[in-house]
Amino acid sequence: MTDMLLWDANWRTAAWDSVAGDWDVIIIGGGITGAGILHEAARLGLRALLVEQRDFAWGTSSRSSKLVHGGLRYLKTGQVGLTRASVQGREQLLAEGPGLIDPLGFLLAQYEGDTAGRLVYGAGLTVYDLLALQWSHRYYSPQDFQMLAPYIRPTGLRGGFQYNDAQTDDAQLVLRLIREAVAEGQGSGRAGEQGREGGVLALNYARAEELLRDEAGEPLGVRLRDMASADGRTAEARSRVLINATGAWADHLRQQVGGEVRIRPLRGSHLIFPASRFPVAQAISFMHPIDGRPVFAFPWEGVTLVGTTDVDCPPPLETDPCITADEVAYLMAAVTAQFPALDLSLDDVLASFAGIRPVIGSGKADPSEESRDHVIWAENGLLTVTGGKLTTFRQIARQALEQVCERLEDAPALLARLHDDAPVLQPLDGDMDADVALTEEARRRLAGRYGREAADLLAAAATGDLEPIPGTPAVWAELRWAARAEGIVHLDDLLLRRVRLGLLLPLGGINLLPRIRSICQEELGWDDGRWAAEVDAYRALVSAAYSLPDRATIPDWNAQLTETRAARAYAASARREQQQVVRHRGGQVLLLLAALAALVWLLGRQRGRENNARHL
User: Fold this and answer.
1) Distance separating alpha carbons of residues 419 and 574, to the nearest angstrom
2) Is residue 71 a contact partner of residue 90, using CB atoms and an 8 Å limit?
3) How far apart are CA 49 and CA 38, in angstroms?
4) By the 8 A CB rule, do 219 and 381 touch?
5) Fewest beta carbons less than 10 Å away: which of 142, 194, 207, 282?
6) pTM of the prediction?
7) What's the rounded Cα separation, in Å, for the pair 343 and 519?
8) Sheet holding 242-244, edge to edge
9) Can you give the pLDDT at residue 192?
10) Cβ-count burial of 188 within 10 angstroms (0-12 exposed, 13-18 middle, 19+ buried)?
11) Residue 338, Ramachandran bin (φ over 0: left; ψ between -120 and 50: alpha; else beta)
C-alpha cells in the first residue's frame, strides 16, 4: 500500500498555509501541459508549485477527442517532426499505461470522388508506421471493409485502410500525472519543508490574479486567490521561474508582461451516442460530406464519440464551452450521410461536449490549416508554453524545463537527468490484491487510471463498491476514492472529470444521484444544504454545456445534405457538359487536321504528277 494522498477539505487548508514562500518553479495551469511539467520537475527534485484557477483538467484537457495519436493528417501539411514526436510518445504511453492508454484501431474509408486515392493514403500510412518503427496498416476491399464497418455507407465505397492509434481518459491522465508528481516529491524535494509534501504542491481552484515584480519589473512571483473559499483568501508565492501553461487562456498572463495577443482559440465539439444505437468496434474516419474535413466516430468508455468541429471561439472564455446549433447540424449531417442504415436522430444523442484548442494564430482563413505544434516563448521573465498535442506532453515538458534548469544551481546535472530514459508513468509496485472480486479488465482499468494508488482505492471500498456502475465500465469505489482523496470542490469535479458519469449516462447521471450521495456526501464533508446546492448547480451545468442546444435553433442537416448533393450533381453535370464540349471541339479540330492533312497529301500528289509530266 502507498502513503495515501488524501486531498480533502483539511488538505486544502494545509495547502494554502504552505503556498507562500519560495519555489524553484511555479506552474500556472493544471491541464496536460502543466501536469507534464510538474511531473518532470518532481522527478528532478525541484521545489515545484502548480496552481489551477478551476479544477485540474477543467479546460481543454478534459474536453479533448480522447485520442493519443500521431496526427496522421499533419503529414499532409508537412509537419513530420510533430508527427514523429507524437507517434513516439504514443508508443511509450501504450507500453507504460495499459488501462489508461489503450490501442484503438482506425478505419479510413475511401469513396469514389475522394481527392486522395489509395496510393496517396498508402504512402502516408507507410510514413506514419515507419515513424513508429512498425507496420500496422492494411488495405481492404469494399466487401472486406464493410465487414469491419457494417453500417457504413456502401454507395461508392472503393475500400479503405485499417491502422493503429490509441485512446485515453484525458482528465484521468492529467490527474495521475499530478498525483504521481506530488507523491514523487514527498521527502525527495530540495526543500523538504513541512506541509509542502517534499517540495511539490498542486492546488486547484487557486487563481493567479497578478504577477509580482521586482524593482526592475521582472516577475518574481504571483498573487493567488482561493476560488473555493467564501472569504477568497490570498497568498503570495515567489519564484524566479514562472511558467504560463494556461493553454487557450495564455494571453491573459502574457499581456501582463507586455506580450501581444497570439492565441487563436478554436472550438472542437463532439456528440456522444449510446453504443447500442451507434455500434462501432473501432474508430472510423471519413470525409465530411459538405466540406471534406476529416470526421471520426469511435468507441470510448462504452459510448460512441463523434467529432470534431474546428471553428473559431472568440473570447470571453470564462464559462464552460458548449456545442452550438450549427455544430450539431454539422456532426449530424456527417453521421446521417455516412451511417444511413442507423437512422440516427437527435433523440439518440446522449450528451455533448466542447473543448477549446490553444492554436497559435497565423491569420489563415481556414482554422483547420493552422499548425498544431507547440511554442515556448520567453517574454520579460515569463515562460509561456502552449499549443501542441496531448500525446506530446512529455516532450513539451522537457523542452520547457531545459530553460528552467539553466537558471538553477547544478544545471548540468539537472539537464542530464531531465533527458534520461526514465518512464513517463510510475510503474506499479506490484499486483493488486488477488482476493478482490474483479474481472481482469476491471483490474487493468483501475491499475491504469490510478497507478500505485489502485491498491488504496480497493482498500477504501465498502460493501458493494466494487460492483459496476450501470451503463459504465467504472465501479462505485472510484466515486468514494475521488470524494475522499482527489481534491473535489464541486459536484461537477466528481462527475465530469474524476469519474466521467456526466458524459456516459443520460442527463449527466442525474438518476444515480441518490446512490452517489450515499457514498460521497459524508466523504466530502458536505451538509444537506451544500449537497442540494451542488446538485442544482450540476443540473444547470449539464443542461448548458453538456446537452443539446434548443432543438428549434438547430438547422435542418438533411436539407443541407440535399443542397450539397444537388450542388455537386450540378457541378458534375457541368463538368460532363464541359467535357462533351471539349470532346466535340476536339473532334472538330481532329477533322480539320485530317482535312488539312488530306489537302496537303493531295497537293503533294498533284505536284508529283506535274513534276513527272515535265520530265516526260
Assistant:
1) 60
2) no
3) 8
4) yes
5) 194
6) 0.90
7) 39
8) 200-204, 48-52, 25-28, 242-244, 382-387, 374-379
9) 39
10) middle
11) alpha
